[in-house]
Amino acid sequence: MELSCKSEYVLLALIELTLTYKSNEPLQIKQIAARQNIPERYLEQLLASLRRCGLVKSQRGPKGGYLLAREPQNITLLEIVGCIEGVETNSANEQCSDPKTAECAAIQEIWEEARQAANGVLASYSLQDLVKKRDEKGHPNLMYYI
Description:
Structural class: mainly alpha
Number of helices: 7
Oligomer: single chain
Distance between the termini: 45 Å
């Protein structure tokens, strides 16, 4: 299983919105796009999808932009990926749509187990957790030797 470019862009944009959540100041598309190197037109479409899913809200006007609709700790990565990617098709089911053979039944069972495991991991992390991990990676513990 791979993270799509679409989901990666959305997560990068949501990191930016998480960082400004406490200030309650909306970020404009051009600000997010510049900070995360995301094409503006594409980001506009992605944010519109997130708005329809209730994950972000938009504010109009000269100081308008986008804000998280809920607290970052209450938005799971599974919810985000589900919104952007939609229902994941099961490629094992496409190849073995009729599990009459033992091989197809085994493939479907393992594929479903992998999907559930991935969903479980994504459900266990929030946007706040993602930002915390980002901060840990960006500020490694420095060791000083004398």
